[in-house]
Amino acid sequence: MQQISYLQDQLGLMTWPLLICSALTAMIIAERIFQVMLSIGVGKRAIRHELNQISPTNSKEIEALAQSISGKRPLLYKGVSMLLAHHSFSKGLREDAAGIWLQEKRHQLHAGLRLLGLIGVISPLIGLLGTVLGLIEMFKGVAATTGSITPNDLADGLGLAMRTTAAGLMIALPAISGGQLLGLWADRVLAQLEHTLNYVNVWLEGMSIQTSQSGDTQGTPVSKASIGDVSQA
Predict the structure, then answer these.
(1) Where is this region: Disordered (predicted)?
(2) Does some domain include residue 146?
(3) Whether pTM exceeds 0.85
(4) CA–CA separation, 198 vs 209, rounded Å?
(5) Is 231 contained in some domain?
(6) DSSP-based helix, strand, coil % in the chain, nearest 5
């Protein structure tokens, strides 16, 4: 309670709005970082290594792999498990299922980022409002002074005005920067998920795609009877 009273003395009427914005920013960023930790831990190479151990025509091996990776934490494993579980369906239906799953994860990974952006816009405005109120208090003190005006007459109101502006900016900076960085991370994760799901979908059709060191993408049938190579720059 003493800390709250101290903050109210320092920030005036804007104490609670700034505290709420600060608490929301901290909670959203902490929750998003927790999601980052849950999503990382496996790459496309690990998925390809798993697929290379089985045949795309062996339903039992595919179902066993889908079952073994379905309980793992990274999103990449969950997406691949979902797609492998639908291996018996047509390619078009698998693409529709993957699209629905990706859309759901897109909403999940971007959850709270718009609120962070909104806080980043509102916090400086709250600080600016506190600045105006502080200046009003300062001029009230000046008007009530009958003698000469001293710095002490201006200090309280002007100090309140500067403190609320600084507090608003201190909240806005992590909210905006955190929202942008987390958005970039979410887009990167979604791109990796989309690429890997496309790879698995093509693999289920009997084609193995390999990327050469020069950056060309080569596709070859998984079966021993090779019918040709497909190269795309």
Answers:
(1) 211-233
(2) yes
(3) no
(4) 10
(5) no
(6) 75, 5, 20
Which residues make beta-bridge pairs with 210?
218
The reported pLDDT for the residue numbered 45 is: 80
Q: What's the CA dihedral at 74, 119, 187, 51 to 10 degrees?
A: 10
129 Cβ neighbours under 8 A, 6+ residues apart:
14, 164
Q: What is the rounded distance in angstroms from the CA atom of residue 29 to the CA atom of residue 179?
A: 8
Cβ(140)–Cβ(27) below 8 Å: no
Domain that holds residue 54: 2-208
Contact 203, 209 (CB under 8 A): yes
Domain membership flag for residue 28:
yes
Structural domain count of the chain: 1
Q: For residue range 173-200, what is the model confidence (pLDDT) as tens digits?
A: 999 999 999 999 889 888 888 988 998 9
